[in-house]
Amino acid sequence: MFLTISTTGTPERPATDLGFLLHKHPDKAQTFSTSHGTAHVLYPEASAERCTAALLLEVDPMALVRRGKNKGRGGAPDAALAQYVNDRPYAASSLLAVALSTVFKSALRGVCNALPERAAEPLPLRIEVPAVPARGGAELVRGLFGPLGWTTVDVRPVALDETFPAWGESRYVQLVLEGELRLADALRQLYVLLPVLDDAKHYWVAPDEVEKLLRAGEGWLADHPERQLITSRYLNRRWGLTREANDRLELVRLAEADDIGVEAIDNAVEDPAPEPDDAPAENAENVGKNADKVESVEKTVSLAQQRREAILTALRDAGAGSVLDLGCGQGQLVQALLKDMRFTKVVGVDVSVRALTVAARRLKVERMSERQAERVALMQSSLTYTDKRLKGYDAAVLSEVIEHLDLPKLPALEYAVFGTARPATVVVTTPNVEYNVRWETLPAGHVRHRDHRFEWTRAEFRAWADRVALRHGYAVRYVPVGPEDPEVGPPTQLAVFSATETTKATRTTRTTNVKEEKAA
Fold first, then answer.
1. 3-state secondary structure (DSSP) of residue 327
2. Which one, of 492, 468, 490, lies nearest residue 311 by Cα?
């Protein structure tokens, strides 16, 4: 099996710079040993105007059989036909992808100390692969390479036998790619997509394959329209690894969309040290003249527990059966909701993969009975983007979520939740900044959590909630949570948004349409 990489140049920027970028001299034919044969690199042509590098891989069928025994799929999808006679020595597959990563290791990383500026800029490239096994046909090949910046993706099916046209086409295609791309990007695309098209790997897919996929897919895979298919096939349909890869790629996509680092998004897992907001209510004993009136039982219940109970009460009063916990974090509220059988469907939503992993562990999802597992789901999604999966639920909860967003992003959340998802009931809680003076352990002028972008007074929260309710067709009422101080109010503010009759009618129509779409 082989492929060729060609480029063009000028006397000032000669095409033979390709030799520097590949770290292989155009005047030499070089040979490299691989685990399944021998790789050769040679240059059929090398001039200032045009330069072509060829990678030829000679596969040892005996080595393929010996090394493939009891490992993955044995290296050949057609192994049932014969162990020693198959297409592996001729068709571009994971064998060629591994050879690429071995022979052109530095080029794959975009490293070239001799010509760093050339390595960082696009080149006019033409890549030819004569025999690509395409499980999915020519259309899949175009669908995989088309969105990646190539101006030409020429895919020609190979006939089973040219002398007998009636026999039809084989599952192999001739592939020619043309366009201006960085050499490293082109090589990484081939490294990932050749095994994907073949839909087979000659080695066992271990967990470290996720890291290899993410490294090779940096800059293009997160936004690829066929991302799900690519990750599934590349990881040999290992469900756990595929889910991990897709979760991490979704974080990359969201981070790129917001022009921030991934670590800034995947930060929902709290440190073990308790925050003032989750401290026992007894820490707020100096709440003014009426502090001695706080019930003794209340002093033993944390504010977080009181908040969850207030949310549960609001949901029960609303008659909600299906509930979204938006920004579910580590799943404490989801766990509380599942204990009440009147909540027939509970969905925890968070952008953080780490938080969802902790939530799944807390809920013991893997050990749930089938009936209980049907009641709960955890999904990754960003609340500042619309998500059709969030439509059709009776209620949604935003518990201590809005204060973690930058204020300019709040309108996006409002539209995603109130304007698009449009549950009949929305419960929102947020800290009351006026109450902060009652926390003895909180320095003056500090917010309750280092990730809080703002904290509102009661008047500011009500002004925001009233505007949202008016804009989106909801009525809103307010409930204090925690010991209420006559001067500064309660530590937590809670608002219950209830859809008006007009909004409910619109929501019913949309829910019916969503169900019909799912049925179709």
1. coil
2. 492
